[in-house]
Amino acid sequence: MGERQAITVLKRDQLGRVERLEGARGPLVRRVACGGRIPFSGWLARLLARRERRALEALAGLEGVPQLVPEEAQAGQHPDAALLRSWIEGRALARAEALPEDFFEHLDRLVGALHARGVCHNDLHKEQNIVVGSDGLPYLVDFQLASVHARRGRLFASRAREDLRHVEKHRRRYTRFGRGPRGEQQRGAGAAHRRSWIARAWKRGVKPLYALLRRCLPRGSDGEERRSESGPWPRWTPPLGAAAQRMSSR
After folding, report:
1. Where along the chain do its domains lie?
2. Is residue 188 a contact partner of residue 159, using CB atoms and an 8 Å limit?
3. What is the pLDDT of residue 141?
4. Do the Cβ atoms of 103 and 234 come closer than 8 Å?
5. Which pLDDT score is estimated for 186?
6. 240: which DSSP letter?
7. Statement: the pTM of the whole predicted model exceeds 0.85
8. Which residues, including other chains, have CB under 8 Å from residue 122's CB and lie 6 or more apart?
9. Is the pLDDT of residue 150 over 70?
10. The domain at 6-86 falls in which architecture?
11. Residue 242: CA atoms inside 13 Å, Cβ hemisphere, count?
12. Which pLDDT tens digit goes with each residue over 48-87?
C-alpha cells in the first residue's frame, strides 16, 4: 500500500501481531502472521490466517463482522502473511460500560446469521471476541479458528451448538452477576446447551495440555480478558428493539 499510514500495535504474541492502521481510507486492522520464536509458529500463523480469510470471504456483506479489504498482500511476502480488514468501533464485551437490555437477543441473531452462511466462529468463549459497537449492537471479531461448512452435517451442527452454548454462558453471567433484565435471567437459566463431544474432548484431553503450553510460553501483550464476578458490571440501557435488527446481507 503506497499511502502513508500511522501504525499502532494492538496485540503481539507467538503467532504475530495485530495492528491498527490510520490512513486516507480511515482506520483498518492488519493481522501480520509472522510467527515467533517457537518452531513452526510461522506455519501455524499462516494456517490460521487462511482460516480467517476463508471465513470472512464467506461472510462478505454481512453486517456485524469485519469486512476484508483488498490489496492486503505486500510485495515479497507470503500471500497469507498479512490480512487487512475493516475496523469496528466499539469495546470488547469485558470492557463495555453499558449494554442494551436486548443485547444478547441481537447477539443470538448475529450468530444465527453466521450459521446461515455455513460459518461457525468456534471461539466465542472469549469475551474479547464479542465487541459492543458504538451503536450498542454486537459485533464479532477474530475468525482465526472459524470453520466454513459446505455441508450442514453433524460436524457443523456440533460446532454451531457450541457457538450458541457460549453465547448462553455469557448471557447467564451478565444477567446474573450484572443483574440484567429479569426475563433474560430466566431465559439464561433454562436455555443451557449440553456440551458437544468436541467440547468434552477439548476439556478432558486438549485443554490441560493447552493450559500447560500457555504457562511455558512467553505471554503476549494482552491476555485473555474475562470480567470478574465482582464487577464492575455494565449498566443496562433501554432495548434497541426490532428497528435495530440487521439485514442478513447488504
Report:
1. 6-86, 90-217+224-242
2. no
3. 97
4. no
5. 53
6. -
7. no
8. 145, 146, 147, 159, 162, 163
9. yes
10. 2-Layer Sandwich (3.30)
11. 0
12. 999 999 999 999 999 999 999 986 544 445 556 889 999 9
